Amino acid sequence: MNNKLSLLYRKDGTQKFLSSLIAILLGMVFGSILIAIVGLNDSDIGGKGVFDGIKLVFLGLFSTGMKDGSLTFGFNPSLFGDMLFRATPLIMTGLSVAVSQKTGLFNIGAPGQYLMGTTVSLMIALSIPASSVPPVVIWLLAFLGGILAGALWGAIPGLLKAFLNINEVLACIMTNWISAILTTWLFDVSRFSVFRGPATSAMGDPIVLNGSFKNLIESTKSAYVYMTNYNNVATAKLGLDKLFPGSQVNGGILVAILLAVVVYIVINKTTFGYQLKACGANRHAARYAGIQDKRNIVFSMAIAGGLAGAGASLYWLSGNTEFAWQTYQSLPAVGFNGIPVALLAINNPIGVIFSGVFMAMLNIIGTRLKALTAYNEYITDVIIAAIVYLSAFALVIRMWLGGRKKKKEAAPKPAEPAPVQPAAEKPVETSDPAVSEEQKGGAQA
Asked: What pLDDT shows up at residue 197?
């Protein structure tokens, strides 16, 4: 039994998992200490508030409310469903960063790729009238359009890196802000919508889309784009709404998990995946071995961009979320949050599923802290930041774990006594002439 546990501990995958788990636990402990410091210095919170805040950090997903001034816990299906809904784009942007890392590239351009996927998927979903084309077909076209837009936007830094050796981080930062300005401009001036209505929204209200994507029906929503359910386009629930009633969850989470599995197979089980990893390990050695490094760099960034665009499509095509078209002042946080998701997963596509869900859980915990205590939800951002910094040290933690193993293996063993060899008899040497030749021969024998 001990040998089996020792072999399991020595595996690289086990040590990667343990290093990420240690980073998460240390981050949660740091968050608890921070909650205690803030609460004990705030008279509105006090000792009981501190205790409630710490409980929510670890058990917030199971919180059901307050009763007689005390927190109550149990299975909360709406929180679980919302967690899965918010995890969907995080999984996709995490995959985007992880794929580029396999080729030795740092895709900090996921926010821009996410925005381009958002723009194209929403325009397609709202432009094609559902009265002429089945909503399922519109949804599929919008989803594929979002992937293609993200892929093309991701290919730009890839081309600059492959052929001009321009650092992909600099190129991605530039394309991020270009996409933010371009998205704002397109939704502000666009008159490409062919949907002229009248139509009936999912709420049963008659609407007319007058050639613009801006929400002009609700006077308070003029800075927002119409939700896709205004054109009866929405991601299928696939029965998840019955498992998690009262939540926003839909079939998008299943698509994200399926894509993560596909990425894992491509990266680890195909020749193309081997070539990507070879370029990441040593681009020049890969080229010497006959691998087309430039092509693979472009493909890697295009795939990364397509995954980020797919995350945007899955989120905004849900039919129940509103997109603020004035994005030029900021970039979507979900694009940057893909970085810690990939870091926690050690760039493993399957691990990205779990780290994406974990990050979404922290987001839910933040809303529960705000709703049930005197804390605000931003304290979970500090916890996430701590986990991000610690996950960056995951390699150090892994080296520490590996160092313990090597030290144990290199421990000096007690020296065994050397076996005693029987002493060989030496031939009799004498100069006495009285000794006969026969006696000499007998002594030698």
From this structure: 46
Sign of CA dihedral 329, 332, 333, 339: negative
Helix (H, G, I), strand (E, B) or coil at 432: coil
DSSP letter at 214 equals B
Neighbours of 79 (CB within 10 A): 22
3-state secondary structure of 65: strand
d(CA 356, CA 84): 9
CA 311 to chain centroid: 11
> Could you read off the pLDDT of 394-410 as tens digits, one per residue?
666 666 766 655 555 55
CA trace torsion 107, 112, 114, 118 (10° rounding): -160
The residues near 396 (Cβ < 8 Å, ≥ 6 apart) are none
Question: Please, what's the b/e burial string for 189-209 (b: 16 or more CB within 10 A of its CB; e: otherwise)?
Answer: ebeebebeeebeeeeeeebeb
Closest CA to 85 of 430, 398, 367, 346: 367
CB 61 within 8 A of CB 224: no
3-state class of 226 per DSSP?
coil
Tokens of 43: 């008279």
Q: Is 235 exposed, middle or buried (0-12, 13-18, 19+ CB in 10 A)?
A: buried
Cα torsion 347, 352, 355, 357 to 10°: value is: 170
Residues forming beta bridges with residue 199, ordered by sequence position: 207
* 148 alpha-carbon distance from chain centroid: 21
DSSP code at position 398: H
Tell me the DSSP string of 321-361. Answer: --EES--TT---HHHHHHHHHHHHTTT-HHHHHHHHHHHHH
Per the structure block, which two tokens stand in for 49? Answer: 């508030």
Phi, psi of 229 (to 5 degrees): -70, -10
Nearest to 93 by CA among 310, 327, 368, 317: 310
Q: Which two tokens stand for residue 66?
A: 């307050």
| Reported pTM | 0.83
Q: Provide the strand spans (E) within 161-274.
A: 199-200, 206-207, 224-225
- DSSP for 173-197, written as a single string: HHHHHHHHHHHHHHHHH--------
Kindly calculate the radius of gyration of the chain based on its CA atoms and give it in whole angstroms: 32
Going by the DSSP 8-state scheme, the letter that residue 418 receives in this structure is P
Distance CA 230, CA 7 (A): 57
Give the pLDDT confidence of 333-373 residue by residue, as tens digits.
899 999 989 988 889 999 999 999 999 998 898 888 888 88
